[in-house]
Structures are given as structure tokens and as C-alpha cells.
Amino acid sequence: MKRSKFKFFLLTIILFNIFVHFGIEKSNSNQPETNKFNYSYIETYPWIPKCNLETKLMPVYDSKRNLSNDYSSPSSDLTFEIRIIKAVIIYFPIDQYDSYADEFLWLFRSWIEIIYLEPSKWRTDLVIFIYENTDALKSIDLFRKLNCSFKNLRKSKLDKPMCTLVSFTPLKFRNLIDPELKIDQRLYNFLLYHSDIFGKKAAKILSDFLVKTIQSYPNADSVLIALDGYDHLKKSGYDFVIRSDIDVFLTPLFAKWSPKHCNDFYVGKGAYSAHFNMNRLKRAGYHINFLYGNHANLGSTWYSTTDQSRLVAYLSLFSMAYLANEEFSPPERNGDLNILLWPHWHYWVLSLYGQNLAMNHLIETKQMNIQSSDLLDYPAHENSDINKIIHIHAYHNDMIFSKFDFKEGKYDRMDMNKLNFNIAHNYALKMAIEGKFFSKKKLLRIFLSAIKNKK
Asked: What does residue 93 show for φ and ψ, rounded to 5 degrees?
């Protein structure tokens, strides 16, 4: 009897220790992995900082050299003899065609302008990610009339500039692959530190994470194209990818400008950072082992290599979903507070918060040469010389150029004969008016004329 009681007591102790150990392991798995603060993506994936294009004129960036960070001047004439292939990539929401058609046309018009001006050996493609499986696309002839097609595929550096459509499924039309996916610290640790972030498994799990947290958030797709479009962009052999919103203009300087290093990462300027949201992002980053260096107002436009853009897209999308899940309440996500908390904390700029968190970490851990530049996302209502900026962005304002006044037709009868089109807001006005009033046939004709002299 005593022996059986002893065995029962011993078994109880063993089981207790097993359960305690299991509980500790389970608890630990729900904690941030603090040993990952120094985790290096570029050591895990050593091809990320490499370039298709590497010459003495455009070397790989090396932080140990401490070279000057002056990136404001145009490229050397010597680079004009190098074949440089770029892609401006955008997401076009076909179900909101009426809202974005005008913006696309002014971007298209400015794209033609830079094709005329860029060196004959350079190429800049316009790559449009769009939802193909919809009747809305079949009923629209805009892209067909401008020779933008799914069949336009870059096969060689010698191919002339082209407008390409790429099939893309927006987040709001995606289904869960694994409805049982549990969102907790273990998922965060897995996606950041224990998965092949360039592999299909991580992409599927990340997609489910996005669907479960930010499926209704409208600005995720403009980042998601840099992730999902990776295979297409790599196969096309682009040296540089410019991820941009639609409501932008490319300038004459864009035509003759290239990065100082073949693996630089340029990001434009935004206007959303405030003391409160930066402190909150820093605290949120700590729980996923992200360092935060208070780099503010990192904008929506990126200019870098395909590999680096994909890494930033992956980390930005993860951060967006993580912040939505951990830092925003349901009323905030549903828009019930409208702009009450702006500029301190506002769900509508979640995409910018997410990339800000990701980029701060990459800057602080010295994994990328990320440069915030006034050359990108320059406000369309300002008056700088267009030969000193490479990219203009139409923000919310009531000064020329205002995209809202433009869409209301307030500029339609404006006399532009005496305007100086070397000034940013006048150049934007010219491109927008010509995009609106030139027939599709005329736009196509000047595009075909522009690509004739390409070598």
C-alpha cells in the first residue's frame, strides 16, 4: 500500500514538472525573442544588397567607406552609356476607375516626357498591377488604347520602353488559406525570424495575417505589389524599381538621374510624424525586436533594387498588420473617430506607420543605405525648379496644383501661355491638362515617337 502511494506521489511530481516545463515553454514562445535585436536580414539573405548593375560609376554602397551622402546632383554623363533599366510600379484600383483615371493619365503623360529626355540606352517601363479577374477591366478601353497590355513583357535590356499590366489580386478580394491561423507573439516571431521570408510558405502565412487584420484597409495594395510582384520584376531584369502612388508626375531630372550607388534605397518625404506617434512606434517596435531611431516622415515613394524593395515591403506589411492588431482599437480601424486623433495617431496612414517602423529598424541596424530625399514626393503646389527634383506628388491642398480643383474642372480654361513650366506646380498643371485633353490616340502617337530613338 505504501509502495503504491509512493509511486502515485512520484508520478504526480513528474507530471507536475512536465506541465510546469510545458507552461514555461509556452509562455516563452509568446514573448519577444530579445536575442533577435541584432538579427541581420542581409546576412541571412546575402543577395539582397547585391545589384544587377555594378560599375565604378555606380558601386555597391559600403558603410565602412563613409562616403558623402550628397545625392542631389544629376548623374554623370558617363553613366549615359550604361544600359540602365527601370520600372515605375503602381497599383491601379480598377473598381475605382473614375477616381483614378485622370491621375493615371497625367502620370502616363509625364512618363512619355521622360522617355523623350532620357539617354538612348536607358529604359523606363510603366508597370501597372491590376485586378484582372473582373468585368470592370473588360469594359474599359483606356489601357488598350494606350498599348498597356499583359502581353508586354520585358525580355531584354534592348527592348524599348513599354507599359505593362500585371495580374494582381487586391487584399480585399483574397480568401484565407488557413482560417485557423492564430495571431500571437509566436506568429510574429515566426514571420520575422524563423521563416524564409522569400519563400512561398512565409508569403502565404503573411497574406493570411494581412487578410485577418487589414483586409479592408485601402492603402495596403500599393505596398503589396512590391512583394507579390517580385518574381515578375526579377524576371524582367530591372536595375531599379520605383514604387509610387498614382497621383504623381515624373520630371525631366528623373530622365537623367540615377542613384550614386547601385544598391541605395531612396524614400520620399511625408508629413505624418508627430512626437506621440513616433514614441508609440518605438514602444511597439520593442516588442518585435525592432530598433527605432526617430527617423521621421519617411514618404510613400521608394527607389531601389527589386530585392531591397521586396524586403522593405515584407517588413512594412508585417508591421502594418502588427500595428493594426496591437495598437489600434476596432473603432479606430472602422473609421469611427474620423480624423479626431490626427496627426497624433491615425489609422488612415497605417501604411506609412508600418514602413516607418520597418525602415527605422533597417537604418539603425545598418542593413541598408536608406536615404530620405526631398527629390521624391515633392509637393505639387510648390515652386521649385523641376530640374532639381525627380518626382512630384499631388497632396491634399487648395493651391495650384490641386488635384481636387483639377478634377472639378477649375483649370480647364486656364490660359497657360505665359506660365513657366520649369516650376513644379506649373509643370504638374501642364502634364495633367495634356493628359486630360489629349486624345488616347494622340498620347499613343507621342509615346511611339518617343521610343523611336532608343538604341
From this structure: -80, 95
